[in-house]
Design goal:
This protein is of the alpha+beta class. The protein has four helices and 15 strands.
Length: 258
């Protein structure tokens, strides 16, 4: 617990501002992402909006040597997909867009699945169940709960629906740094792990596979894919632990707590 940075009320206000701006980025992309765009075009649209319209910083750019402002993970890409001028979105694709934004010294992190044109019922169901799994985890957040409770809720929902949970990647604390303590696993046991306290801020971002949980990283050193080439989906929000529950700092206008 000594490594976890509890946020003061003024710091929480700044994180709330960053989260609100990031939600606006996704509202902007909702109007633009479509078949025929390259993932690099999505990246460039996002960068211009964050910098020019929001006067904020795309926090992923330059982090760990990454050159872009977002990850674009299409179909069987689990996470960390690299934008490309040659990867053109087409009808039937599902794509996760993962963005970080810094304003006032604090970072927000969120991702959203986009369904391009008509997708298969199986793809839509995976996307929907992954979204539900994220919320299953979010809803147990409160002072006195544990990170094991969060992971258990996510894992139970995914596996009950016939899916598998990626274990190699997890959520994380967030604030002045993109990655802070603690690690937030998406599997777990009730009552185990770090006890949540008011002022903690972290991401919940389950990666759920249609097939087996096994993944591998491609030669570019970034792109993570399913080993069996089946689809993967992910959603992500930045969460704050409040006095009596949680606050979703990156909640988008179209969302209501399921």
């Amino acid at each position: 617990m000594s490594d976890v940075r509890l946020k003061t009320p003024p710091e929480m206000a700044l994180m709330r501002q960053s989260g609100k701006l990031l939600a606006e980025v996704f509202a902007y992309l909702d109007q633009h992402i479509k078949a025929g765009l390259s993932t690099m075009q999505v990246n460039d649209l996002t960068e211009r909006y964050i910098v020019d319209q929001l006067a904020a910083r795309p926090a992923s750019k330059g982090q760990y040597g990454f050159k872009y402002v977002l990850n674009s993970s299409v179909n069987h890409v689990v996470c960390h997909g690299v934008p490309s001028e040659t990867q053109i979105l087409k009808a039937g694709d599902i794509v996760n867009i993962d963005i970080t934004l810094e304003k006032g010294g604090f970072i927000a992190d969120s991702s959203k699945m986009y369904l391009i044109g008509e997708v298969t019922p199986e793809a839509r169901l995976l996307v929907d169940r992954t979204y539900e799994a994220m919320w299953e985890g979010i809803r147990v957040v409160k002072p006195g709960a544990t990170l094991g409770d969060v992971g258990y809720a996510i894992q139970r929902h995914a596996e009950r629906n016939g899916y598998s949970v990626v274990r190699e990647f997890c959520g994380h604390g967030i604030g002045r740094e993109m990655h802070e303590a603690p690690e937030v696993l998406h599997v777990g046991s009730r009552g185990k792990g770090l006890v949540l306290r008011e002022g903690m801020t972290f991401t919940i971002e389950p990666m759920i596979n249609q097939g087996k949980a096994r993944v591998k990283t491609k030669k570019d050193g970034w792109t993570v894919v399913t080993c069996d080439k089946q689809l993967s989906a992910q959603w992500e929000h930045t969460i704050a632990v409040t006095a009596d529950g949680y606050e979703v700092l990156t909640l988008r206008a179209e969302e209501r707590t399921p």
